[in-house]
Amino acid sequence: MHPTFKSLFLATALIASQFPLAAQAADITLYLHGDENRDYPPQSQSLIMQEMDVWERIRKGFAIPDLDNPLVVSQTNWYSARPDYIQRTTTRASRYLYHVVEELEKRNMPTELALLPFIESAFNPQAYSTAKAAGMWQFIPSTGRDFDLKQSVFKDERRDVLASTEAALTYLQRLYGMFGDWQLALAAYNWGEGSVQRAIKKNTAAGLPTDFNSLSRIMPAETQNYVPKLQAVKNIIAAPDQYGITLPRVDNQPYFVTIGKTRDIDIKLAAQLAELSLEEFKALNPQYNRPIIIGSTDTHILLPKNNAAKFKENLANWGKNLSSWTAHKVTGARERIEAIASRFGTTPQVIREVNNIPPKMALKAGSTILIPKTELTSQKDISAEVADNATMLVVPDVPETRRIYVKVGKRDNLASIASRHKVSVAQIRDWNDLNSDKVATGKRLELHVPNRVAARSETVATRKAVRGERTTAAKTASHRKAAPAAKPRAVASKKSSTTTARKSSRSQKG
């Protein structure tokens, strides 16, 4: 641990020990992520390192050969013509760049890869694409699972700054090992390794080169522009003055520290104790899907260095519950949100909002949702097993029953009608104000049937109607055949043509 920060940590711990409620803080650990076992250089060398900002450090580690093609020029012009966009993105990136560069250098990887989230997500860890890719590095669900990024109701590690960065760099290393070329590795990150392999095989069979520029012509437009975009950003970062761009200073030191947390805590409260805005807290901890952080030995919270000590001190002084939510698993096939709200003393609106349940949707059995804690559950945390395996599925919220009308047939009685529609004779009598089980043929009865039965009854009725129309049409045709022959009549036959819609598909990136 760095000597200065170690002193700060010990001082904070000493302050916390003076308070009787310090037990609240006894379950957290605080350290500079990745630096806790690091041998620091002499002070003079450390000062030189601090004078160099992260942008300069990235420039010194450039190692991917420059790409030269017309798309690089057009992409460089596009980015350089938007200084406001560059400013917003680089300012957002300043939270994460030091950590990403540190991890790249540990792996001896080119540092321009630290700029890849610029292309993927504009350094927005909350980014979500139409292909369901999430996070700063834009992992789709399946690729995320391939790299052990957990995805549950409560947490999506594709958005976790630490976990997703580790997964992305591991994936890029694997792709480089596969192709031996960083430009092709990047193309595979966007297009999929299988697609790049097939493109290489195709060019090899045709006796053509297999570098990025040579393969680009058979790549989709997005991939054709993907590597040129990174080259364009690299050009601007290499010489911002040349493009009239001013980069925000990013100090060559960690922006955040990691706090290990083993108790549940509300996100709003965590931000409050850290004396951070909710927006800033979520920018560093975007992986949490619900307004609670589930505590476990694997749980971590990222905080700016100066706020970490405040968090520990304020936590020691906090004399109330840390979380106001617990988990509830829906067991009944039709356990309605209104009934759950009534049972736990809350409102349907609160349950819908905290669990992101859309309007007019109901919960399926097996879903795990958050509900407010009660006196009985105020000290009970959500278990790691529940958190890791929680799912939530919703279905259209339709009434359990549906009103239909049926006409009594010649062979019908109340018992046969009740059996056919999965209701009871007593119910039919009640719905129709009948005093006995006798019912006249042709009488119209009102039924309230389970929705599935109602849908089936309507389908059967429709089929009967269609069969009836076909029978009538057949009888009419038979009658016409028996009638005297009319004069021959030319009938124009029209061939129907069908167009097969073809969907273009491409491999989704991880």
Mean pLDDT: 83
Shape by Cα distribution: extended
Number of strands: 11
End-to-end CA span: 35 Å
The biggest beta sheet is recorded as: 3 strands, antiparallel
Radius of gyration: 33 Å
Low-pLDDT stretches are 1-26, 31-48, 457-462, 464-510
Describe this protein's structure:
By secondary structure, the protein is mostly helical. It is built from 22 helices and 11 strands. The strands form 5 sheets. Strands 1-2-5 form a 3-stranded antiparallel sheet. Helix 1 (3-17) packs parallel to helix 16 (305-317), helix 6 (97-106) packs across helix 9 and helix 14 packs across helix 15 (278-284). The chain starts with a helix and ends in a 28-residue tail after the last helix.
Question: Can you lay out the helices and strands and say which pair or pack?
Answer:
Layout: H1 3-17, E1 28-31, H2 43-51, H3 54-60, H4 70-80, H5 83-93, H6 97-106, H7 116-120, H8 141-146, H9 161-179, H10 182-191, H11 193-205, H12 212-215, H13 221-238, E2 256-261, E3 265-266, H14 267-273, H15 278-284, E4 292-293, E5 300-304, H16 305-317, E6 325-329, H17 337-343, H18 348-355, E7 361-363, E8 368-372, H19 384-389, E9 394-396, E10 401-407, H20 414-420, H21 425-432, E11 444-450, H22 451-482
Antiparallel strand pairs: 1-2, 2-5, 3-4, 6-8, 7-9, 10-11
Helix pairs in contact: 1-16, 4-13, 6-9, 9-10, 10-11, 10-13, 14-15, 14-16, 17-18
